[in-house]
Amino acid sequence: MARRILAACASALALAVAISGCSSSKNSGAKAPGSASTSTVASGGGTVVIGSADFSESEVLANLYALLAQSAGYKTKIQTVTTREIYEPALEKGQIDIVPDYAATFTEFLNHKVNGANAATVATSNKDTTLVQLKKLAQPLGLTALEPSDAADQNAFAVTKDFAAKNNLKTLSDVAAAKLPIKLAAPAECKSRTFCGGALIDQYGINVTQFDTFDFDSVPGKKAVQDGKDDMVEVATDDGTLDQFNLVILDDDKHVQLADNLVPIVGKKYANDTKLADAINKLAPVLTSKDLGSLDAQVDNEKKLPADVAKAYLVDKGLIKG
């Protein structure tokens, strides 16, 4: 998924420089734009450094974690991070303390790091099974995976509500059964990707007759389907804008997509800090994909600050005081 493939800084930069971010206005400071303020009370051995990637969803999640940690008495600092190749070693070294990530994606990152680039996939479409594999890989590296939320940011495929109603479509299997020729709006690499074109063609048997190139979950791609130029578009399950384009996601009824539920990854310094874990884990049973889409939309569409969106959400859910 494009939003999970984070842009890298120049490889010549030292790790300490890379952790502070690439040279852009969003990455120039210690905290992400609109990030939660540092609390005044420390607990558990100093300031908790929370990594935030440079896109709205990650910024909101980092602020959610910061506010929950602050409510438990920790000082926090939000730090812009870049690729997993950079922030995962920083977690091991205690330079970054918590990063929001995606269960299956992080599991497979560690799987390939530990077992080699050609290692068989160990993540599955089941959240709990994937978490077992994630913990098995993370613990020897000094990392801890906290509770994953029900909220997931997975690949999904959407059509217009009119197209779905006309052809009686609710699932991807329905598309295959209807033998509809499908023009797909998706990134260029989709055609050869197991969980994109491969999922539709090989797993579902959908007749994809044309691939039209658009960025992942982009406005132009969604507009192309809305206008009838394409039939289906690859999107994210937490996209909060689909109604604006009259789009509906078709159910992945064969469970082809891996369980990319949101999960906090804790680094070496706080790996055994149960107080911090308990504070952050309060989010897991509350945050849904629908909630996540709404939070993203408030930042992306309404131009609200991630810190303000995060605080309003936690207060509304009764997880922190207003």
Strand order of the largest sheet: 7-6-8-5-9
- Give start-end ranges of low-pLDDT stretches: 1-33, 37-44
Counted by DSSP, the helix tally is 12
Terminal residue distance: 35 Å
Describe the structure.
This protein folds into 2 domains: 2-152 and 259-316, D-Maltodextrin-Binding Protein, domain 2; 155-250, Osmoprotection protein (prox), domain 2 (D-Maltodextrin-Binding Protein, domain 2, 3-Layer(aba) Sandwich), CATH 3.40.190. It has 12 helices and 10 strands. Helix 2 (56-71) packs across helix 12 and helix 4 runs parallel beside helix 5 (127-138). Helices cover 36% and strands 16% of the residues. The strands form 3 sheets. Strands 7-6-8-5-9 form a 5-stranded mixed beta sheet, with helices on both faces. The chain has a 3-stranded antiparallel beta sheet with strand order 3-10-4. A two-stranded parallel ribbon has the order 1-2. It is globular. With 322 residues, it is α/β, with parallel strands linked by helices. The longest helix has 16 residues, at 56-71. Strand 6, helix 8 (197-203) and strand 7 (207-213) form a beta-alpha-beta unit.
Keywords:
322 residues, D-Maltodextrin-Binding Protein, domain 2, disordered N terminus, 10 strands, three-stranded antiparallel β-sheet, single chain
Topology:
Blueprint: H1 15-19, E1 48-52, H2 56-71, E2 76-80, H3 84-93, E3 98-102, H4 103-115, H5 127-138, E4 144-145, E5 155-160, H6 161-167, H7 172-177, E6 181-186, H8 197-203, E7 207-213, H9 219-226, E8 232-236, E9 247-250, E10 262-266, H10 274-281, H11 289-300, H12 306-316
Parallel strand pairs: 1-2, 6-7, 6-8
Antiparallel strand pairs: 3-10, 4-10, 5-8, 5-9
Helix pairs in contact: 2-12, 4-5
